């Protein structure tokens, strides 16, 4: 005679002893799905790589100068010295400072040679850029171009060589008041 | 070949090693799928899903606990996902007396496995899940409640009702079988 047993336990015991056999052909379907998954993952990674490269390329091609502008107008040498306490060669300065220095240099030359008049200033300043740059070493001497004006009147045979432009102007345009005075003083 | 070697090779997407592991564990995982799913077709689909997940995430297996246990859990969770995603198939109302006994006098050993599995598969989805998780795989009602997003009391009630249904369906078969026994 059988004793009463819980149906749940009976089923668990019964199924615990059993085995089933799965079809081996299931593997083919699993393999196909795994291959598809692998392909999808590859495409995903490839897409991701393109996105990253595209992003990097965009950043690379965009104008980097706009991002690295250092506008630092330095008005005087003292300020520059205060901000950059480094050696003379490495001092960073602005264009206005350079201009000033060059003017001072020219004035010094004029003082030492009072007869020489600077007719034309042929200076070549570098284009003003937004970025600060190294101050080039100032030349020891400044080239001064001396212009001589030559006047020759064919009808009278009058010939004048001068470095004063206003003298020639007074001869060419005698009708002007200020030129007339100069012309008269010339013939005195 | 040793299991560790097979697992290492399978982690490197070695198809041969994966096929070996499939051959080794297919029957065990198929049996689990048969218990948790509604029918044989669903069980086969669940087996495929489980193996695809196993081989896709085999790198996550760090050797803690048995490999078989890890695979079994994946198979069970796949079946639960399947059950959660599928629409509940309306089952004919099963009249069972709530106060009825879940005990049976006769042995069920004579009932063919196919018929036994069929009766389990024919249980309403939630009853089947609770019955298998509690009875076959030793989960507590608290764990089942978390897994199926139900309350503990619902889990207990579902388990009891599943057993009542099974007893009602299996008891006559044991009697018939015992009569026909020589």
Strand content bin of chain B: under 5%
Kindly report the oligomeric state of this protein.
heterodimer
Overall pLDDT confidence of chain B: 87
SSE series of chain A: EHHHEHEEEHH
CATH topology of the largest domain in chain B: Rna Polymerase Sigma Factor, Chain: A
Helical stretch count of chain B? 8
Tally of DSSP β-strands of chain A: 5
Query: Mean pLDDT of chain A, rounded to whole units?
Result: 71
Gyration radius from CA atoms of chain A, angstroms: 46 Å
- The number of helical runs of chain A is 6
User: How much beta of chain A, percentage-wise?
Assistant: 5-15%
Question: SS-based structural class of chain B?
Answer: mainly alpha
Helix vs. strand class of chain A? mainly alpha
Report what the structure shows:
The complex is a heterodimer of chains A (188) and B (182). By secondary structure, chain A is mainly alpha-helical. Among the domains of chain A are: 32 residues; 58 residues, no CATH class; 39 residues, no CATH class. A two-stranded antiparallel sheet of chain A has the order 2-3. In chain A, a hairpin with a 6-residue loop joins β4 and β5. In chain A, α5 crosses α6. The longest helix of chain A has 36 residues. Chain A is rod-shaped, with a radius of gyration of 46 Å. About 13% of the residues of chain A have low confidence. Chain B is mainly α and 182 residues long. Chain B folds into two domains: 83 residues, Rna Polymerase Sigma Factor, Chain: A (Orthogonal Bundle), CATH 1.10.1740; 68 residues, Arc Repressor Mutant, subunit A, CATH 1.10.10.10. In chain B, α1 crosses α2.
């Amino acid at each position: 005679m059988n004793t009463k047993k819980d149906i749940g336990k009976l089923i668990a015991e019964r199924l615990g002893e059993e085995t089933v056999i799965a079809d081996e052909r299931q593997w083919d379907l699993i393999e196909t799905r795994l291959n598809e998954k692998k392909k999808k993952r590859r495409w995903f990674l490839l897409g991701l790589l393109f996105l990253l490269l595209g992003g990097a390329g965009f950043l690379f091609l965009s104008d980097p100068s706009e991002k690295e502008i250092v506008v630092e107008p330095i008005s005087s040498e003292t300020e520059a010295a205060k901000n950059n306490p480094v050696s003379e060669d490495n001092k960073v300065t602005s264009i206005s400072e350079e201009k000033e220095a060059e003017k001072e240099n020219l004035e010094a030359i004029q003082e030492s040679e009072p007869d020489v008049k600077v007719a034309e200033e042929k200076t070549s300043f570098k284009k003003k850029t937004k970025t600060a740059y190294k101050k080039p070493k100032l030349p020891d001497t400044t080239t001064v171009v001396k212009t001589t004006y030559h006047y020759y009147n064919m009808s009278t045979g009058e010939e004048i060589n001068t470095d004063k432009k206003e003298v020639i102007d007074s001869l060419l345009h005698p009708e002007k008041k200020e030129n007339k005075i100069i012309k008269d003083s010339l013939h005195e | 070949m040793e299991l560790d070697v097979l697992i290492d090779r399978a982690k490197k997407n070695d198809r041969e090693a994966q096929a070996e592991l499939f051959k080794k564990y297919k029957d065990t995982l198929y049996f689990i799928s048969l218990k948790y799913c509604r029918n044989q077709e669903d069980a086969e689909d669940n087996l495929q899903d489980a193996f695809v997940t196993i081989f896709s995430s085999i790198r996550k297996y760090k050797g803690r606990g048995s490999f078989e246990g890890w695979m079994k859990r994946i198979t069970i969770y796949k079946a639960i996902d399947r059950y959660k995603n599928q629409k509940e198939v309306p089952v004919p109302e099963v009249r069972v007396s709530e106060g009825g006994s879940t005990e049976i006098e006769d042995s069920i050993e004579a009932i063919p496995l196919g018929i036994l599995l069929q009766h389990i598969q024919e249980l309403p989805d939630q009853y089947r899940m609770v019955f298998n998780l509690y009875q076959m795989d030793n989960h507590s009602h608290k764990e089942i409640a978390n897994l199926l997003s139900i309350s503990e009391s619902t889990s207990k009630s579902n388990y009891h009702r599943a057993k009542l249904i099974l007893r009602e369906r299996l008891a006559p078969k044991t009697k018939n079988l015992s009569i026909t026994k020589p």
